[in-house]
Protein backbone atom coordinates (compact mmCIF):
# COMPACT_ATOMS: atom_id res chain seq x y z
CA UNK A 1 0.00 0.00 0.00
CA UNK A 2 1.31 3.35 -0.96
CA UNK A 3 0.43 6.25 1.25
CA UNK A 4 1.19 9.74 0.21
CA UNK A 5 1.92 12.20 2.98
CA UNK A 6 -0.58 15.03 2.77
CA UNK A 7 0.80 18.49 3.11
CA UNK A 8 -2.06 19.35 5.51
CA UNK A 9 -5.57 18.14 6.47
CA UNK A 10 -7.60 21.28 7.15
CA UNK A 11 -7.25 24.94 8.05
CA UNK A 12 -7.85 27.04 11.08
CA UNK A 13 -9.37 30.35 10.06
CA UNK A 14 -8.56 32.71 12.91
CA UNK A 15 -10.12 36.09 13.56
CA UNK A 16 -9.60 38.69 16.26
CA UNK A 17 -12.34 40.97 17.56
CA UNK A 18 -11.96 44.68 16.89
CA UNK A 19 -14.72 47.08 15.90
CA UNK A 20 -15.64 44.33 13.49
CA UNK A 21 -13.75 41.06 13.55
CA UNK A 22 -10.56 41.03 11.56
CA UNK A 23 -8.46 38.25 10.13
CA UNK A 24 -5.40 36.91 11.90
CA UNK A 25 -4.66 34.11 9.51
CA UNK A 26 -5.59 30.99 7.61
CA UNK A 27 -3.46 28.20 9.00
CA UNK A 28 -2.98 24.73 7.48
CA UNK A 29 -3.15 22.07 10.16
CA UNK A 30 -2.97 18.32 10.64
CA UNK A 31 -5.75 16.29 12.22
CA UNK A 32 -3.43 15.33 15.07
CA UNK A 33 -3.15 18.97 16.11
CA UNK A 34 0.34 19.57 14.77
CA UNK A 35 0.97 21.88 11.88
CA UNK A 36 3.53 22.69 9.20
CA UNK A 37 5.10 26.14 9.02
CA UNK A 38 7.46 28.13 6.80
CA UNK A 39 7.25 25.58 4.02
CA UNK A 40 8.83 27.38 1.07
CA UNK A 41 11.52 29.99 1.52
CA UNK A 42 11.68 30.47 -2.25
CA UNK A 43 8.15 31.85 -2.29
CA UNK A 44 8.48 34.92 -0.11
CA UNK A 45 5.80 37.56 0.09
CA UNK A 46 5.58 39.83 -2.94
CA UNK A 47 3.40 42.86 -2.25
CA UNK A 48 2.94 43.55 -5.96
CA UNK A 49 0.79 40.40 -6.13
CA UNK A 50 -1.76 41.85 -3.74
CA UNK A 51 -1.41 45.56 -4.44
CA UNK A 52 -4.96 45.82 -5.75
CA UNK A 53 -6.24 44.02 -2.65
CA UNK A 54 -4.43 46.30 -0.25
CA UNK A 55 -7.32 48.55 0.64
CA UNK A 56 -9.62 45.64 1.40
CA UNK A 57 -6.82 43.92 3.34
CA UNK A 58 -6.27 47.10 5.39
CA UNK A 59 -9.89 46.89 6.39
CA UNK A 60 -10.38 43.13 6.82
CA UNK A 61 -6.87 42.06 7.81
CA UNK A 62 -5.29 44.98 9.66
CA UNK A 63 -2.44 44.55 12.07
CA UNK A 64 -3.63 45.31 15.58
CA UNK A 65 -0.07 45.36 16.86
CA UNK A 66 1.25 48.48 18.58
CA UNK A 67 2.48 50.69 17.13
CA UNK A 68 0.14 50.03 14.27
CA UNK A 69 1.71 49.42 10.89
CA UNK A 70 0.41 49.29 7.36
CA UNK A 71 -0.14 45.55 7.54
CA UNK A 72 2.49 44.50 5.00
CA UNK A 73 4.74 42.92 7.61
CA UNK A 74 1.82 41.01 9.14
CA UNK A 75 0.63 39.76 5.73
CA UNK A 76 4.18 38.74 4.84
CA UNK A 77 4.44 36.82 8.11
CA UNK A 78 1.13 35.00 7.59
CA UNK A 79 1.83 34.09 3.96
CA UNK A 80 5.37 32.89 4.60
CA UNK A 81 4.66 31.01 7.84
CA UNK A 82 1.29 29.50 6.93
CA UNK A 83 0.29 30.18 3.32
CA UNK A 84 3.39 28.58 1.83
CA UNK A 85 2.36 25.31 3.47
CA UNK A 86 -0.71 25.09 1.25
CA UNK A 87 0.85 25.89 -2.11
CA UNK A 88 -0.89 22.85 -3.51
CA UNK A 89 -4.17 24.79 -3.43
CA UNK A 90 -3.30 28.45 -3.82
CA UNK A 91 -0.63 30.98 -4.67
CA UNK A 92 -0.02 34.11 -2.62
CA UNK A 93 -2.90 36.01 -4.14
CA UNK A 94 -5.23 33.04 -3.77
CA UNK A 95 -4.29 32.74 -0.10
CA UNK A 96 -5.46 36.25 0.67
CA UNK A 97 -8.56 35.90 -1.50
CA UNK A 98 -9.53 32.66 0.23
CA UNK A 99 -9.29 34.25 3.66
CA UNK A 100 -11.26 37.32 2.60
CA UNK A 101 -13.99 35.15 1.23
CA UNK A 102 -14.11 33.05 4.43
CA UNK A 103 -14.48 36.19 6.48
CA UNK A 104 -17.54 37.17 4.47
CA UNK A 105 -18.97 33.70 4.79
CA UNK A 106 -18.43 33.60 8.54
CA UNK A 107 -19.83 37.06 9.21
CA UNK A 108 -19.26 36.73 12.94
CA UNK A 109 -20.57 40.17 13.72
CA UNK A 110 -23.94 39.38 12.16
CA UNK A 111 -24.11 35.96 13.83
CA UNK A 112 -23.61 37.62 17.21
CA UNK A 113 -26.03 40.43 16.50
CA UNK A 114 -28.72 37.91 15.54
CA UNK A 115 -28.36 36.54 19.05
CA UNK A 116 -28.56 40.01 20.55
CA UNK A 117 -24.86 40.17 21.34
CA UNK A 118 -23.21 43.44 20.45
CA UNK A 119 -19.46 43.09 20.95
CA UNK A 120 -19.01 46.86 21.16
CA UNK A 121 -21.45 47.38 24.05
CA UNK A 122 -18.75 47.01 26.70
CA UNK A 123 -20.83 44.48 28.64
CA UNK A 124 -20.00 41.01 29.85
CA UNK A 125 -21.36 38.10 27.88
CA UNK A 126 -21.84 34.43 28.63
CA UNK A 127 -19.38 32.23 26.76
CA UNK A 128 -22.13 29.71 26.11
CA UNK A 129 -24.20 32.35 24.30
CA UNK A 130 -21.31 33.55 22.18
CA UNK A 131 -20.50 30.00 21.14
CA UNK A 132 -24.13 29.18 20.41
CA UNK A 133 -24.56 32.32 18.33
CA UNK A 134 -21.57 31.53 16.14
CA UNK A 135 -22.55 27.88 15.88
CA UNK A 136 -26.02 28.86 14.67
CA UNK A 137 -24.61 31.32 12.17
CA UNK A 138 -21.96 29.13 10.59
CA UNK A 139 -23.20 25.63 11.40
CA UNK A 140 -20.16 24.52 13.39
CA UNK A 141 -18.80 25.26 16.83
CA UNK A 142 -15.87 27.68 16.97
CA UNK A 143 -13.01 27.56 19.43
CA UNK A 144 -12.76 30.78 21.39
CA UNK A 145 -9.46 31.78 22.92
CA UNK A 146 -9.28 34.39 25.68
CA UNK A 147 -6.74 36.56 27.37
CA UNK A 148 -7.01 38.65 30.51
CA UNK A 149 -7.42 42.43 30.59
CA UNK A 150 -5.64 44.80 32.94
CA UNK A 151 -8.42 44.39 35.53
CA UNK A 152 -8.23 40.61 35.44
CA UNK A 153 -11.33 39.98 33.33
CA UNK A 154 -11.35 37.40 30.58
CA UNK A 155 -11.74 38.84 27.14
CA UNK A 156 -12.15 37.27 23.75
CA UNK A 157 -8.78 37.16 22.01
CA UNK A 158 -9.34 35.01 18.92
CA UNK A 159 -12.06 32.95 17.28
CA UNK A 160 -10.94 29.78 15.47
CA UNK A 161 -13.07 28.11 12.85
CA UNK A 162 -12.17 25.03 10.87
CA UNK A 163 -12.17 24.96 7.10
CA UNK A 164 -11.85 22.05 4.67
CA UNK A 165 -8.64 21.37 2.77
CA UNK A 166 -9.85 23.34 -0.24
CA UNK A 167 -10.13 26.46 1.96
CA UNK A 168 -13.77 26.86 0.94
CA UNK A 169 -16.20 25.39 3.45
CA UNK A 170 -16.44 25.46 7.20
CA UNK A 171 -16.31 22.03 8.81
CA UNK A 172 -16.55 20.48 12.25
CA UNK A 173 -13.13 20.90 13.86
CA UNK A 174 -11.12 17.67 13.64
CA UNK A 175 -9.21 18.88 16.69
CA UNK A 176 -9.39 22.02 18.75
CA UNK A 177 -6.36 24.24 19.23
CA UNK A 178 -4.55 24.63 22.52
CA UNK A 179 -5.16 28.31 23.14
CA UNK A 180 -6.00 29.78 26.53
CA UNK A 181 -9.53 28.90 27.49
CA UNK A 182 -12.20 31.38 28.62
CA UNK A 183 -14.24 31.64 31.79
CA UNK A 184 -18.06 31.63 31.71
CA UNK A 185 -18.20 35.38 31.57
CA UNK A 186 -16.19 37.30 29.03
CA UNK A 187 -15.95 40.73 27.53
CA UNK A 188 -14.84 41.84 24.09
CA UNK A 189 -11.80 44.09 24.03
CA UNK A 190 -12.58 47.75 23.73
CA UNK A 191 -11.07 49.50 20.76
CA UNK A 192 -12.92 52.76 20.88
CA UNK A 193 -13.27 55.56 23.45
CA UNK A 194 -10.77 54.58 26.12
CA UNK A 195 -7.93 53.17 24.10
CA UNK A 196 -6.52 53.65 20.64
CA UNK A 197 -8.80 56.47 19.57
CA UNK A 198 -7.61 58.89 22.19
CA UNK A 199 -4.10 58.53 20.96
CA UNK A 200 -4.92 59.77 17.48
P1 LIG B 1 0.42 31.26 20.27
O1 LIG B 1 1.66 30.70 20.87
O2 LIG B 1 0.25 32.73 20.44
O3 LIG B 1 -0.83 30.48 20.54
O4 LIG B 1 0.61 31.06 18.70
C1 LIG B 1 1.68 31.63 18.04
C2 LIG B 1 1.61 31.30 16.59
O5 LIG B 1 1.77 29.89 16.38
C3 LIG B 1 0.28 31.61 15.93
O6 LIG B 1 0.23 32.95 15.51
C4 LIG B 1 0.30 30.68 14.75
O7 LIG B 1 1.15 31.20 13.77
C5 LIG B 1 0.92 29.47 15.33
N1 LIG B 1 -0.06 28.52 15.89
C6 LIG B 1 -0.40 28.39 17.20
N2 LIG B 1 -1.28 27.39 17.35
C7 LIG B 1 -1.50 26.87 16.11
C8 LIG B 1 -2.30 25.80 15.62
O8 LIG B 1 -3.00 25.09 16.36
N3 LIG B 1 -2.27 25.57 14.29
C9 LIG B 1 -1.50 26.31 13.45
N4 LIG B 1 -1.54 26.00 12.14
N5 LIG B 1 -0.74 27.31 13.87
C10 LIG B 1 -0.73 27.59 15.19
P1 LIG C 1 1.29 33.95 14.13
O1 LIG C 1 2.76 33.62 14.12
O2 LIG C 1 0.72 33.61 15.45
O3 LIG C 1 0.56 33.55 12.91
O4 LIG C 1 1.19 35.56 14.06
C1 LIG C 1 1.58 36.35 15.11
C2 LIG C 1 2.71 37.24 14.67
O5 LIG C 1 2.21 38.35 13.89
C3 LIG C 1 3.41 37.84 15.85
O6 LIG C 1 4.78 37.94 15.53
C4 LIG C 1 2.79 39.20 15.99
O7 LIG C 1 3.68 40.12 16.58
C5 LIG C 1 2.49 39.57 14.55
N1 LIG C 1 1.28 40.42 14.42
C6 LIG C 1 1.22 41.58 13.73
N2 LIG C 1 -0.02 42.09 13.78
C7 LIG C 1 -0.76 41.24 14.53
C8 LIG C 1 -2.13 41.24 14.93
O8 LIG C 1 -2.92 42.13 14.61
N3 LIG C 1 -2.54 40.18 15.68
C9 LIG C 1 -1.70 39.18 16.06
N4 LIG C 1 -2.18 38.19 16.82
N5 LIG C 1 -0.40 39.16 15.70
C10 LIG C 1 0.06 40.17 14.94
From TrEMBL:
<dbReference type="InterPro" id="IPR033130">
    <property type="entry name" value="RNase_T2_His_AS_2"/>
</dbReference>
<keyword id="KW-1015">Disulfide bond</keyword>
<comment type="similarity">
    <text>Belongs to the RNase T2 family.</text>
</comment>
<protein>
    <submittedName>
        <fullName>Ribonuclease T2, active site-containing protein</fullName>
    </submittedName>
</protein>
<feature type="active site">
    <location>
        <position position="78"/>
    </location>
</feature>
<dbReference type="GO" id="GO:0006401">
    <property type="term" value="P:RNA catabolic process"/>
</dbReference>
<dbReference type="GO" id="GO:0009718">
    <property type="term" value="P:anthocyanin-containing compound biosynthetic process"/>
</dbReference>
<dbReference type="Pfam" id="PF00445">
    <property type="entry name" value="Ribonuclease_T2"/>
</dbReference>
<dbReference type="InterPro" id="IPR001568">
    <property type="entry name" value="RNase_T2-like"/>
</dbReference>
<dbReference type="GO" id="GO:0033897">
    <property type="term" value="F:ribonuclease T2 activity"/>
</dbReference>
<dbReference type="GO" id="GO:0009611">
    <property type="term" value="P:response to wounding"/>
</dbReference>
<dbReference type="GO" id="GO:0016036">
    <property type="term" value="P:cellular response to phosphate starvation"/>
</dbReference>
<dbReference type="InterPro" id="IPR018188">
    <property type="entry name" value="RNase_T2_His_AS_1"/>
</dbReference>
<dbReference type="GO" id="GO:0005576">
    <property type="term" value="C:extracellular region"/>
</dbReference>
<dbReference type="InterPro" id="IPR033697">
    <property type="entry name" value="Ribonuclease_T2_eukaryotic"/>
</dbReference>
<dbReference type="GO" id="GO:0003723">
    <property type="term" value="F:RNA binding"/>
</dbReference>
<dbReference type="InterPro" id="IPR036430">
    <property type="entry name" value="RNase_T2-like_sf"/>
</dbReference>
<feature type="active site">
    <location>
        <position position="82"/>
    </location>
</feature>
<feature type="active site">
    <location>
        <position position="24"/>
    </location>
</feature>
Amino acid sequence: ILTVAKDFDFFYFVQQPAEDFSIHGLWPNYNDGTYPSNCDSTNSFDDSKVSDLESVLQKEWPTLACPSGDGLKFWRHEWEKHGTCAESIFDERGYFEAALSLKKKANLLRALEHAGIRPADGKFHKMEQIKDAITKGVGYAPYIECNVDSSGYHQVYQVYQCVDASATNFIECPVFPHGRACGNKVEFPSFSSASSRDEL
